[in-house]
Amino acid sequence: xxxxxxxxxxxxxxxxxxxxxxxxxxxxxxxxxxxxxxxxxxxxxxxxxxxxxxxxxxxxxxxxxxxxxxxxxxxxxxxxxxxxxxxxxxxxxxxxxxxxxxxxxxxxxxxxxxxxxxxxxxxxxxxxxxxxxxxxxxxxxxxxxxxxxxxxxxxxxxxxxxxxxxxxxxxxxxxxxxxxxxxxxxxxxxxxxxxxxxxxxxxxxxxxxxxxxxxxxxxxxxxxxxxxxxxxxxxxxxxxxxxxxxxxxxxxxxxxxxxxxxxxxxxxxxxxxxxxxxxxxxxxxxxxxxxxxxxxxxxxxxxxxxxxxxxxxxxxxxxxxxxxxxxxxxxxxxxxxxxxxxxxxxxxxxxxxxxxxxxxxxxxxxxxxxxxxxxxxxxxxxxxxxxxxxxxxxxxxxxxxxxxxxxxxxxxxxxxxxxxxxxxxxxxxxxxxxxxxxxxxx
Length: 442
Hints:
Elements: E1 47-52, H1 59-66, H2 69-72, E2 76-81, H3 85-93, E3 99-103, H4 106-112, E4 119-124, E5 127-128, E6 130-135, H5 136-140, H6 152-165, E7 170-174, H7 180-191, E8 200-204, H8 210-216, E9 221-225, H9 228-234, E10 238-243, E11 254-259, H10 260-265, H11 267-284, H12 290-297, H13 307-311, E12 318-319, E13 330-331, E14 337-338, H14 358-370, H15 383-390, H16 394-402, H17 430-434
Parallel strand pairs: 1-2, 1-3, 7-8, 7-9
Antiparallel strand pairs: 3-11, 4-11, 5-14, 6-9, 6-10, 12-13
């Protein structure tokens, strides 16, 4: 395949890092430029509306509401459950909600798209948390979960043989074209030598409808956050070949999104909301809280599915397949959902999940170039300025100071062990990274 070189761009400058004290979890008074303190009298707006799409990724938002964390920070937050990410985006753009759970790519696509809408990410809500599910047709065609193969190469050979034996492109679905699951699915396919733009048809379907589309045979598989993969397996409609953290360990999940105008108008409220959600994220990452979280999420006003289907990805009993006459073993993935910090081989203090990592946004921008989205054929020379507007760090750092959370000391480089194809990602070398890929849109 003909290789195309991208315009040379040397590096991205590192964001300035502010080191805060990490001496406790009390709620201290902070000393920022604006002398902001955790004082309800300084909140420009106390009653907020926050939209979300029901999934296990939404746990910090729901927990902050149910456990009184928002209230403890002087905020009265009303949650608005939405059925799709397009509804979330529309409500943000129209100013019908103050903030929302968002897809990681939303700010980038909004600001670089036709509308040039100033949507931004205030913080990361989670890492990992998704999986790829295939249907019965793939099982009958000889495909199996990754655990039944010696390595990724063996699975890749099997998957390519199956894909090309069908004689037509497979239909895959994600919850949105802007979903991180879309970019990970393309990455996974590309790593197996399959061109996701030519050999696969990719659809966007509301997450709660994916299981029915797979059962009806409308799609061959999907990539989505939990609990929809586990529900599909439990009902013996599909099986899981790969979970998302095995494609990229520590990949970004969902964000807290808002519009720049709202943040400019309510800066103290914005940083207090971020502080409250950091607190909720810390609660969600404590193993002793996971069963209670699953019980809360299962309620009818939230995910409205049985608690056991939510527990599987939260309490180390993940199920990859559930067919009769097969040994249906469960797997322990303590880092399947990361909300703030767990000690893993790819997450060490002071690094933590909620920080707006520049490496994540750089990687996403490389993928927009790789797949020629929004007319991007070259990596932008002004990428620093572009990403600063979409994924700023100042409000997050102020909020972290309220909680005395130490800010990461250095830029994050993803070692080759982080990705399924063993490619290292250095955010200071995006062009060198892009030029490694044979499969891309030309």
